[in-house]
Every structure is written in structure tokens, then in C-alpha cells.
Amino acid sequence: MHDMADNNSVIFFESQFQGQVRNQQYALNPFETLALNYLKGEVLDLGCGLGNLSLEAAKQGHRVVAVDASPTAVARIHADATREGLPVQVIQADIEKWSIDRSYDTIVAIGLLMLFRHETAIRLLQAIQKHVKPGGCAIVNVLIDGTTYMGMFDLDNYCLFGQNELEERFAGWKILESHNQTFPAPAATRKEFSTVIAEKPG
Predict the structure, then answer these.
(1) Which domains, from first to last, does the chain contain?
(2) In terms of Cα–Cα distance, which of 77, 98, 100, 103 is closest to 89?
(3) Within 10 A of 35 (CB to CB), how many other CB atoms are there?
């Protein structure tokens, strides 16, 4: 089992988040902006990063549980939620070892599952699906085959999903959004994303 301090992806994001906090860079990314349109009820934001989505969701009236491994991210979310009186509970945890202990109306995992070995990613996805309440939503975004940017990965602890794998794993759910997108990345590399927003049968 990896120690968090030795995990390249944790180190990568911690450094990135420190820079963003210094520069007050808190804009929602395109996936978070899309997700806002589909949030229902109480929200679990797994791998919440700097909490941009969590805080915005709370401003819109959602109760939010936000979980991330980054001390910098957790400190930022806690400070802003406290200052603004927002209903956000923030938890610092190694998500590979953390268990979802109850059900939520919406569970979000944007840019998270590919940071684990494939079998761990699928186990986490199944836990997400299990803990979405009937009629609730799962909002999941991963990197897929074709991605050539590897800078964020711990190279023996990551996975790229198949082109259509994420949608296929929501068989039986109502697919509200499903699309693949390409974004340029440093050094002439690219990131290929799959995003699925699915409603659990009621």
C-alpha cells in the first residue's frame, strides 16, 4: 500500500494547489461547471481538490461533504466555508482507504478515479454507485485511452479507462450526459476525458 507522502499524484496536486491558493485561482473547470447543473440534495464531492465545486454547491443551498488528500486543499475549503457560513464538512483522507459510510443524493468524482490502479478505481466506482440514493446522480470524470500527459500520475498507481468504459459501467442507469473531450497539455501532450452524469433508477 502506498504511503501518501510517497505518492507522486498526491505530491503533484499538493504543489499545484499551493500555487493556486497563492494566486487565488479558484475558477471552476469545465467539468465542475457542467456538474453544477445536475446537483441534487446532499452532495459528496470525492477528490474535491480546492473545493471550488463544493463551495459553489453550498452557496446554491446544498449540504456538502468534501473529501481530498491534500492538506492545502482541505485548509482552503475549511477556511472559506467557515468565513462564509457554508454547510461544507471537509475531510482530509486517502480516498483509497476511506469508505463512503452512507448514501447521498449526488456523488461527484471529477478527475479522481484514474489516480488509482484499475481494480481500485472500479471498486471506488462501485462504492459510488452503491451510495447514490435512488433518483440521485453520479457525476464521474476520468482520463481515458489516448491520453499522453502523464505528469500527474504515480506511474505504478494509475489507470486510463477505455473509450466507452465509464458509460458502460453505468448500465441500467439513466445517462443524462456522456461525452469524451480532448484538452491540450504541457509539452505537446494531451488529456482525453470521459464524463458521465447518470441518474440512479428510483
Answers:
(1) 4-199 (3.40.50.150)
(2) 77
(3) 26
